# Entry
Amino acid sequence: MTSKGLGAAGSMLAALIIICVTGLSTPVGAESTAQRGETRDELQLPPMMVQAQPEHWTEEAVDEDTLASDDLGDLVEHAEGSDEPTVNITDPLQPWNRMWYHFNDKVYFWMFKPMAQGYRVVVPESFRVTFSNFYTNATSPVRIFNSLFQLKFDYFLTEFGRFLINTTMGFVGFRDCAKDCFGIRPHDEDFGQTLGHYGLGHGIYLVWPFLGPSSARDTIGKGADSVLSFTGIFGPVDLEVPVWAGIKVHETVNSTSFRIGDYEAIKKASIDPYIAIRDGYAQRRKKAVEE
Amino acid sequence: MRRKVVMIAISILVLLGGTCFAGPALDSVKGDVDAVLKVLKDPAHKGEAGKKTKADQIRKISMKMFDFAELSKRTLGAHWNKFSAPQRQEFVDLYKGLLEDVYIDKITSYTDERIDYTKEVQLSDNAFEVQSTIVAKSAEIPVFYRVFNKDGQWRIYDVVIEGVSLISNYRSQFREILANNPPESLLDTLRRKVRKK
# Structure
């Protein structure tokens, strides 16, 4: 035997322990728990907490039920959290975008919401999930090609495998067998993300009628992706326009039926829903590009 | 023999791999969320009256789960220092009220979704991100809780849902107001928002 085998196993172990200790997270174990205890004591008070109270401080101002007195002290410069970067997207066309935001707001409340509410009553959830699977499978080429464009070969293989499995065993995509039977999860990739992956920024924020939040970059991405999806490839060519429009409306109503109440919650939660949605879009797209 | 060694090594790796991503921050968040779920699933609370009892109990748990002062500071960032002590206190209370209104309403409609806890990731000396996924029939929603250690307790200062951080989302909204207006004007907007319901 096999010092070689031992050596290899040993170095794998060492690598894992290093990963565990340095940062990804903390191993659970007697020794490391003891270490944790020590560091925790040192770190108990972040700098902003031990800051002296400002002069105008009055004890009466504090609701004793809720807060310790030093909780409301000044933020120290460069304290954790004082300069957290905000994801930004430039919005020079704000009045124009706001107009379309209000238009889409009405489209939702007057059209898609009532339609989706009725649809939800008539069509059982399992059927709606089935349709949702079908539409997701139909856009597989978008994810397959964009994974390839970004040289993410693992995503490319999983998406290609998902497409093959779901198109065959999943009855043309109506069942997400890749996930249900094999546990293969989808990875969302689109051409906007591909452009972002190679360093292209959003340009400007844009709100489109019916389609909602987007950006200059992601609008180009949507255009490119529509060529890659099946409705893009076959839709305008083989189908009559009303049929194609009907499919689009059904897709929208079907997906809306799962999300009734989400937009209402965002509106209720925000001071300025337009800004909340714009910021949410920028944050979500940033994460999507990074993944 | 060699095969045996490799097998042992692999099983140790698997065992370690399993525990590597769990930790005290994750356990703490999971405990708190489980407490909320227990209230939600309690068959004793039914109907409108039950909903109010649930909301009250969840509010109590959330006081322990969240650190609203820390949440407020991180949301306002540098603007925090422009607020006087009473203004800070009022801001924390109003912000807390706003979040409670919205989220308690939302989670009391919770049905039978499953929650998976993936791992915890260290963000800084004192802060961790506990990653979880809410698994519903139609979608999987990643929900990450950012917690910091305060006097030995893990308290939440941010929640990131589908990549959108709660505090930076509010920061971008508050900043629009605070850019050209005094703190009082933000407080006034919040007062109207929270009382209106």
Summary: Residues 89 and 157 of chain A are 33 Å apart (CA to CA). Chain A has 13 helices and two strands. The first strand of chain A starts at residue 205 and ends at 208. Residues 1-69 of chain A have pLDDT under 50 and may be disordered.
